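Sharing a chain and its predicted structure for anyone who wants a worked example. Both blocks are below, sequence first, tokens second.
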Amino acid sequence: MREEVITTDIIADPRSRYGDSRASTRHFITQRLSGAINVAFLGLLLFLVVRLAGQDRPDMVGVIGNAWIGLPLAVLIGVAAIHMRNGMRDVLEDYVAGRMYRLLMLLNTLFCLIVAAAGIGAVLKLVFWG
């Protein structure tokens, strides 16, 4: 078997442009910022899991229905959905190309929107209407 020799003409010119730099920077910052917000909200999520372990539905509604708990939980669901979409986008960019990429990105976006809308809607219903 013959090994391919890598020469300087095979290596990409570092001055060349690869894609949209603004969109890539925005994606990078969004992914890091949403990850940091998720870490910051981890305490709230751990509090809820420990507090609601073994509780029945009225107790859960009482805790999540509190605006000081429910509203940050709704924000956490939204930020987690954004982070989920961006993470899945990275995977799709690495392993899928062409028309299939566009279809899967559309499905990824729709799935994340549905998850976020259902989760935020459920929490806000508990906060505002019990």
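Comments welcome. The radius of gyration is 21 Å.
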